[in-house]
Design a protein that fits this description.
245 residues; alpha/beta; Tyrosyl-Transfer RNA Synthetase; Structural Genomics Hypothetical 15.5 Kd Protein In mrcA-pckA Intergenic Region, Chain A; 3 domains; five-stranded mixed β-sheet; two-stranded parallel sheet; 10 helices
């Protein structure tokens, strides 16, 4: 990493050199026997191994784990907007997995599920040969993850809900409700007032892109005055729904 930075003539800061030492001293302070971490932390963890040997004459073992990365090699996470939180609902988990690129199917099965390596190899070969549809494999991945975080019944229900929304183009069985006054209002104020958008500029962009719908009808005029009524279903994108009460 540092070599690449030097080649690109980008500076390397002092705290970047001190960080491995600070992390290494954690191992010494806690007198650990084994440290587990992502393979991006190999150098830092080995520093702890050396420091443990020097200060305590003790061996510390290091176990690195493969990271789940996107096709560009970036770690899956909050900054990339593709992570799954453990406290999310089965429907949210299912939708996020289905939005992942196909390249994450096999690594996802390897790192996030209890599917046996032999079966994962068959799935991988099936996708490459065209015998297995990547979408079906991704559904399997989503259900495996949800079964571990919730249960199998929740996984089955999440699949049915996903098919209902995305294949049959129906509204979800359960929709978040939002209190909003009836009457005529500018469409941008409707989006921001119901938190379907966080700002006027975002609301305008969603409308122009055709990403915002009222009762299933796309609204593309950001200057439009709409008539808000009780029971209307607002939709932003494919997964965000709200019902006006």
């Amino acid at each position: 990493m540092f070599q690449k930075r030097l080649e690109e003539k980008k500076p390397i800061y002092l705290h970047e050199f001190l960080y491995p030492l600070a992390q290494a001293y954690d191992s010494v302070a806690m007198d650990v026997d084994l440290e587990l971490g992502g393979n991006d932390q190999t150098f830092n963890m080995l520093c702890g191994r050396d420091l443990m040997r020097a200060l305590k004459n003790k061996e510390k073992f290091v176990l690195t784990l493969k990271l789940l990365t996107d096709p560009e090699g970036k770690k899956m996470g909050k900054s990339e907007g593709n992570m799954i939180n453990l406290d999310e609902t089965p429907d949210q988990m299912f939708g996020k997995v289905m939005s992942w690129p196909d390249e994450l199917i096999v690594p996802g099965l390897e790192l996030l599920t209890e599917v046996l390596p032999q079966e994962i190899a068959k799935i991988e070969n099936g996708i490459k040969s065209g015998k297995i549809n990547p979408k079906e494999a991704k559904i399997r991945l989503a259900k495996e993850i949800i079964s571990l975080c919730h249960d199998k019944n929740s996984a089955e229900a999440a699949e049915k809900e996903f098919e209902k929304i995305f294949k049959k183009k129906e509204t979800p069985s359960e929709i978040e409700v939002v209190s909003f006054s009836e009457g005529k209002i500018n469409i941008i104020d409707l989006l921001t007032g119901t938190a379907m958008a966080q700002s006027n500029s975002q609301a305008k962009r969603l409308i122009i892109q055709g990403s915002f719908k009222i009762d299933g009808v796309a609204e593309k005029d950001w200057k439009k005055i709409v008539d808000v009524k009780k029971g209307q279903v607002l939709q932003e994108g494919k997964r965000k729904f709200k019902k006006i009460i």
